[in-house]
Amino acid sequence: MIFSKPLLDRCISCGYCLPACPTYAMTGEEASSPRGRISLMRALETGELPEDDGTLAEQASFCLGCRACEPVCPAGVEYGNLLEQWRDHQWRGGQRPLQARLLMAAVARPWLLRLPGLVRRHARTAASAGGPSLMLGCAERALFPRVSRAVRTLVRGLAAPPRQGCCGALHAHNGDSAAGERMAKELGKTLPGTIVTTSGGCAAHLAAHLGRPRVREASEFFVEADVLPLGTLSVDGRPARVALQDSCHLRNGLGVWRQPRELIRAVAEYVELPSAAACCGAAGTYSILRPRDSARILAAKIDEIEAAGVDYVVAVNPGCLRQLRAGLRKRRSRVEAVHLAELLVIASKQVRPDRQTDLSESGS
Ligand code: SF4
Ligand code: SF4
């Protein structure tokens, strides 16, 4: 048995998901749609298609895993779970792409995750006493340590224990969901209480294994903890124009999309991109495993950002931030990509420190 039967049986083949799927939009082929892929999964399960069928291998890899097919599905198909089960089987052992294997091996070593912090300082405090803790994230510690520092600037008193491992999302999305679950549970023990994360993808993965109440993505935490964004971002004497790129798993998996918009609106002129909710092509390891497809998706996204005439584009996930920065840099764009926490810190610099939120005083 490769798939959970109740999950696989749920699809009624209505096709409502097709217009939401970016890979179907690219090819127009049924096999590249959510419905087509579920048919492939069923054919794999029954043996109608051999294990080494080329279409199975191609479509398991071509899918972004963005889960845009889930919120539009009237039957409640949990496509993200099905994809994890599919890749567990399709990418088992030596069949997993080499780059994914290397990344997974790297993030599974906690000592390696701590190294970037020795070179580029991320936020860190003593171990948490059970209150909310900031998850430092493996990609962020290596690439964007400023993001965790920005969160601690906004919410003084939020614990950020340095001895924490990876949440396991990378493993779950690359064919090792058992390790992904184990790592999430280990992190849950290291960070007791609410886990605050600046990564939409990690938030969705942790919520699936630790339960939704344990997990807060930064924007929802800011709104709930009353971290009011203060100040107004201005550029050339006018309010800054700011767009948002949703995190797919945050929006499609956890239904969080209002909060980041609300926070941006509080400090700047918010500009909704036509495809804000659609994947930017980062999709975890997708930009590494499928660079051409990823670049094609990104090019259209950068066209849109440029056409919108914005000053900043905000991300709520480190993978999206890396992807947008690379695309904007390649175009020599004047638009700056920042994490939401960084944007709020830039705005709050105009505000008296005593008006910033101190978690230890508010008792949140
Ligand atoms: S995944 Fe959902 S929306 Fe898509 S064909 Fe199946 S039932 Fe319909
Ligand atoms: S996860 Fe994204 S790319 Fe994959 S089938 Fe669903 S909508 Fe299409």
Summarize the structure.
The protein is an alpha/beta fold and 364 residues long. 50% of the residues lie in helices and 9% in strands.
Number of domains: 3
Strand order of the largest sheet: 8-7-9-10
Provide the residue-averaged pLDDT.
Answer: 90
The CATH topology annotation of the largest domain reads as Rossmann fold
Query: Mind telling me the CATH class of the largest domain?
Result: Alpha Beta
Radius of gyration: 20 Å
Q: Which CATH architecture of the largest domain would you pick?
A: 3-Layer(aba) Sandwich
Strand content: 5-15%
- The class by helix and strand makeup works out as alpha/beta
Which hetero compounds are present in the coordinates? iron/sulfur cluster
Q: Using DSSP, what is the number of strands?
A: 11
Distance between the termini: 46 Å
Spans where pLDDT lies below 50 across 5 or more residues: 351-364
Secondary structure: helix percent: 40-55%
Biggest β-sheet description: 4 strands, parallel
Question: If helices are DSSP runs of H or I spanning 4 or more residues, what is the number of helices?
Answer: 20
The 3D shape can be described as: globular
Question: What attributes does this structure have?
Answer:
364 residues; alpha/beta; Fumarate Reductase Iron-sulfur Protein, Chain B, domain 2; 3 domains; 4-stranded parallel β-sheet; 20 helices; binds iron/sulfur cluster; transport; 4Fe4S_Fe-S-bd
